[in-house]
Amino acid sequence: MLVSWTGALNTSVSGLRLKGKKFWFYSLILESFLFFTSVVRCRGFIPIGNIELSKPGNMRDQLGRILAIDHDSAWVAISAYEDAFAVVRVGRTQHVYGPNEEIVEKAKIVHAVYKTSDIRGTVWSMCFMRTRCSMDEYYPVVAMIINRKGSDANDLSMYALAANDGGIQYLSGYSEPGPLALEIAEIPQLDGFGLLFRAGDILIVDLRDPKDICCTIRISMTGSLVGEQISVEDSCRGLDVDDDVAACALLELRDSGNNIMMDDSYMAIDGADNPGSMKSRVICSWSWEPDAMRGQPRLIFCLDDGEFHILEFNWDTEGLKVLPERVHRGLPCKPLLWMDRGMIAGFVEMGDGMILHLEHGRLVHKSTVQNVGPILDLAIADYHGEKQDQLFSCCGMCPEGSLRVIRNGVNVEKLLRTEPIYQGVTGLWTLRMKRTDTYHSFLVLAFVEETRILSVGLSFNDISDAVGFQPEVCTLACGLIADGLLVQIHSKGVKLCLPTSYAHPEGATLTSPVCVDWYPDVTISVGAVGHDVVAVATSNPCCLYILRVRPLSSLQYELYETQHVQLQYEVSCISIPEEDSRLRTSSSAFGGDFRKRKGNNSAAEVDVRMFAVIGTHKPSVEVISLEPDEAFRLLSIGSISVNNALGAPVSGCIPENVRFVASERFYILAGLRNGMLLRFESGTSKDQYLPVSFYKESFAPSLNTLLQLVAIRHIGITPVGLVPLRDSANSDIIVLSDRSWLLYASRHSLAYSSISFLPASHVTPVSSVDCPSGLLFVAENCLHLVEMVHGKRLNAQKFSVGGTPRKVLYHSDSRTLLVMRTGLTGASCSSDIVQIDPNNGILLSRFKCELGETAKCIQIVKIGSEQVLIVGTSKSTDRPMMPNGEAESIKGRLIVLSLDTLGSPHECSSFIPTSNLSSSSHTGSFPEIVGYANEEFSSNSMCSSPDDICYNQIQFEQIAGHLRSLTHVTFTGAVLAVYPYLDRYVLAAAGNTLSVFGFVNENPHRMKKYAVSRTRFTITCLKTYASQIAAGDCRDGVLFYSYHENLRKLELVYADPAQRLVGDVVLLDCETAVVSDRRGSISVLSCPGLEVSESPEKNLAVQCSFFMGEIAMSIQKAAFKYRLPIGDEADPVLESAYNCVVASTLLGSVFVMIPLTSEEHQLLQDVQERLSLHPLTAPILGNDHAEFRRRGIPSGVPSILDGDMLVQFLELTSEQQQTVLDDGSSVKAPRRSISVFQVMRMLERVHYALN
Hints:
5-stranded mixed beta sheet, 9 helices, RSE1/DDB1/CFT1, globular
């Protein structure tokens, strides 16, 4: 059995801001529509209303195609594909609590009217219009663009809800000679005026009287020159554009998203590479300015040639005026979204989107929106030096084709690496000179018997003597206790230091630092420094000391003890919140109003006690008061008791690190020494943020304030460290264990992602002028300065390669990539094979196909001791097969290229030492650039600044070498698939012919055909495993062949039991194949257990299937090997290797499928059924999850589990997890008890490996 995880998800939403609250409307699923609020539920939104429109699998005349919402969000119009639409009135009730006690609004249906007559056509566009009609007569009014059955033109029709009978009435229609009408939109603030978008122009229509429609202004966009300014005319007569031509342009525009299916190597892929197929001067997208000036609405729109224009509308005594302005030229976007503060988001089909800013009448590029879809092919290779895999993917289409290097986890930009001279580091901190300083000033490094302090800046200089820290001891903790005063805690005592001006410009103008020491009678084990307070603990006896500082005179200070208490258990760690704990209502660091949360008088200020969080050997997590005028006071306590599936306590539960986090509700994180991460929360009510005992005026007994353990995760097997990204109680946190993770502080449970970096022992944030958001890791005895790239959906590096990259192979010997490109615009060739250095995108060598020839497939084959590249081509630009699946009568070639002359990438470190630590300093050309004249590759690390985009001009005279052709064979039919076989043969599929080739005497110059077999339809893909051959064709699905060497004959062994248009196939072993089809499904087929003689049909058996909803064009076999992050179970499994399947889709998703045992599958299937119906984790649209994932799957075939559904279980609190598992109403089979620990252990094991 298999379980599937998706690496990316593409959805489509649109937003509307009403009455200070933002709502979202989902526009992807057709069976229903929902209202959303922007409150986060785990990783998504909370649905606040669900109105069912039709059953799954709706017909063309059932509702669910287009949504339109009126300005007040009180009415919604929904149309079907044909002949029907409905008007729905929606009401909202206030103060409904969400699953995590969020206050949200709830939508409910009030009134629905369905209109099914008089339309007789397809609704292309619709919108609500505010007219002069009385609400007592007609309200609301809907304008529609309708294509009537049997008509070549579209007309504008007006419908309204009649007040007398409550039915929908047809008011009037309007049809203007000229271009085809495409869309209708209301002009904000100008009631009764609308924009009629047509192919080549825009009409401003007066709809104030919906029964008497007239055109007032025509805006023409059919300029003869590229970039010609659009023109505005008062009359809309005299237009003469062929409606049929315009209709074709519209269809090409609207179906461009489907071109990839029609234009791949077996379904006219190369047709999409022709940039001239789109008709010019057609509006691709448009958006209105939010919160525009009163009476001056503005519209931005993009033409299909990449021009952006803004229309400003003004109303004066002479009537409506329109001021056009051209503001930008770039890639055509679809859609556009005009956001607040002049920011505009544009999304490019099959290319990266962009964030633009309107400045002085021009759009300025600010950042890039990643889009890796479509992924046409991928290759998996080890990430050298970091012990993790990376994906090389062919993304996008011409002219936005690119090669992406995708790695898992959160991306970091590597800026600097030192020599491996930092052995034995025990602690790492960065300090500021003042609390208000923007940048850090000191870097403190603690070793086993030494402490060093370095300055933070362009260079890291040793300034230990000028700071005053005791150098010959191991620092346990340090920090800034007051402006200009630093504190060092070591095992012998506490040292207060005032650095000199040599260490910092604002230091003391003395020759040596001012230092004050405090020594206890016993050895200090742990400590922490906060604002005006120091807390240290000893182990024998177990005591806790609270110290403070006071000035005695100028440059004279004293450390004195304010509290001293003996504890029952030893303290293992101490944490003091970075911010001043005296939180007031006027400036709450917790993102909430304490007056509302606590419920007291709004005029009174609420003081919160200063406090610290400690971990003990009990084991427990405790919050203690640090108030100077109070005796020692325990504010809250949480006991740590973690049991395994057998009920036995898990050892090593002593806290290694604790941290107070302030988010939507406060909680405490505890990292344990056995690699576990815990989250504690207080049992306060929803109206109270902190427990009563935390407030100064409260004298509630401490035993009433218990912390509840709400979430447990296995993060690794080594002690867990917690390091905040910034000095804030609500900062995201870096979690250190076997590897580094980024924990998101604002989530309701424990949600984190891996950081794409080496396993590190220590980390600290470092901020300087040149690197304001840096991180300093200690790994492999080196200091690594990196910068985390925020706001990226994917950890992907982009190389723009020109044309459309179709296939990619990783050549392990040279550590380079071989990429097959099509759609090139040069005069010499339209397709080629290039060798690229994956470190920097440099072109190393190239092979050009003949003029008019297109490469279709590539594979690396070993002949004796030599490696060659086999290339299959088509000698025609026509489609390689007919619509019925049979092969076209065209020619193709099988070309053998030598790889002995491959250029090797220049040896260079993946880290770039530099004196300037700014990430933008690495922009510019790479050294030693090689390639061809007039060809340019670009490398984009996808940072948030346009300055981070690097372009490297490829020079012809520096070319490293050419891929040399050794021999070729001509076929009748395009060669669509090749693959090596048994280390001495090559399989080639040309049309419906499968051929076996060999090389005489292992000579790559002498190719010989040994066997031929034919299928009914065109073969699209080939894979082998040992002696088994799997061929996928465009109708008959997967066919298993075997080759008899002694007879030189290919024999069909097994056939697919169903007709299947194969996308790709991979063999897991000699009897099992994983195949994807062009309907969005993926299936596992295997040979039946019967002998061939017992089964005359010889059909493969379908073991399991999964409906992805996306077309997978590339499937690869992969192995994930990892250490299980659990060390003390009864059945420890320290090393696990899974033969997995990685599939990439046309929408840009990456699916990972792993095998499970039958017992694991049954257990997780029960969990999935419960999750799919539980309110916290059910599909947000309310659809049937099981029905969706089983679409097209034969009855009785098991379904592959949905990992995206199951992973939600990890994001729930322990109480929520137990609630989900206790809910047996969703399980059809008899209810059985499921252990939370058992499910968590299984999911964590997979999550740990895949992340």
